[in-house]
Design a protein that fits this description.
Elements: H1 9-35, H2 43-90, H3 95-131, E1 150-152, E2 157-159, E3 162-164, H4 169-181, H5 201-209, E4 223-227, E5 232-235, H6 243-249, E6 251-254, H7 256-259
């Protein structure tokens, strides 16, 4: 039987099975005619139909093998596609990720700078008030009219009923990270900014740039065995299975090329 991966393996088997059942039904029909006394049926009629039915049944076996081969070919196409995508991705630079992280970094620096500028203004106002003779007062205070409603404490400055307190950009950013990374939309990828052992900027950017990590390769002297269930086992030379144990364990030695695709 010729093979094409475009063929439906289930249909191939179903068609062959239907033809075999039909041929076997004709054998039964001829046998029933003989039993019923139909003397027009010859030995050749029965023998020929039995041969046809047997051949049709063998074609079912062939169809199953063909279907199995087609399914495996289709599976290999899918695996080749996955392997190709993974190999290509492993060698790719994380350029887009670095670009996005750089944008985040720039935005954070601008945000922190803005907060620092505001906090510097609050410190300047407090110092100028003190220099102008405004006295610091406690949390329950009413600004003096003679001071034009200006007042300050250790934690704030006021102009009438407007109070200004220094803000800490780090707390705001951590709150944003907590809110975003712990949200259901981002799959709970939670990693706080104050995590112990947090990487340096260079380490962080290097981590973002690296798409695939190298892992130790399989030793050159490794030995491979295929179990009767299809599973492949690997052993180093020092722990090779004795030949007398292979049959008992259901193992067959195979080559490195048969065992792995590096």
């Amino acid at each position: 039987m010729s093979k094409s991966v475009d063929e439906d393996p289930d249909v191939i088997v179903e068609d062959a099975e239907a033809k075999a059942v039909e041929a076997e039904a004709l054998v039964t029909a001829i046998e029933d005619r003989i039993v019923a006394g139909d003397d027009t049926v010859t030995h050749a009629d029965l023998s020929e139909q039995i041969s046809v039915a047997r051949f049709a049944r063998k074609l079912v076996e062939a169809a199953r093998e063909k279907a199995k081969s087609i399914r495996e070919s289709k599976r290999q196409v899918v695996l080749s596609q996955i392997r190709g995508e993974m190999d290509a991705h492993a060698t790719a630079e994380g350029t887009r990720r670095v670009e996005l992280l750089t944008n985040v970094e720039s935005a954070v620096l601008a945000f922190v700078s803005e907060y620092a500028s505001d906090n510097a203004k609050f410190s300047d106002w407090r110092g100028r008030m003190a220099a102008a003779g405004v006295k610091p007062i406690g949390p329950r205070f009413a600004a003096l009219a003679s001071d034009q409603g200006l007042s300050y404490s250790d934690s704030a400055v006021r102009a009438g009923t407007r109070e200004f307190q220094p803000e800490y950009s780090g707390l705001v950013l951590q709150g944003l990270l907590h809110s975003l990374l712990n949200s259901s939309q981002l799959g709970r990828e939670y990693f706080t900014a104050d995590n112990a052992g947090y990487p340096t900027r260079d380490e962080l950017f290097a981590r973002v740039r690296t798409v695939a990590q190298e892992v130790p390769g399989i030793p050159e002297d490794a030995l491979f065995y295929r179990h009767e269930n299809g599973q492949v086992h690997m052993r180093d030379t020092a722990h090779a299975w004795p030949a007398e144990d292979l049959k008992r364990l259901g193992l067959t030695p195979i080559s490195r090329e048969e065992a792995i695709a590096e």
